[in-house]
Request: fold
Amino acid sequence: MKKRLRNSTWKPTPRPGIAPIQSAMHFGRGLLAVASGDSAGARAHFDQCSRTDEWCKWEGVLAAEKAGDKAGATAARDTLLKLYFAQLDASHRSLAVDTADVVADVPCGRRLNI
Reply:
């Protein structure tokens, strides 16, 4: 697989103004750099991915670790965890609102153990 990626003639091209495509392009370029053994170059591409692209950010953590950049890996991991917990908190708040609606609809004022 790595040999095929290194010998690939496919080059991702930028599409300015379209964030998901830009993020996918940097993800692809980062993976090609990893396959070529260029962890530092891969990290540079993974850092340019969309802030909410968890897979790309995780690959950035792995690339930083592979490059021996412990401080960079720690910073990238902390950023990824903040994103994860922010999304988890948002979904938890959504769940809390949904369960409050369910409790309000229970007949006779009984509370449900959800």
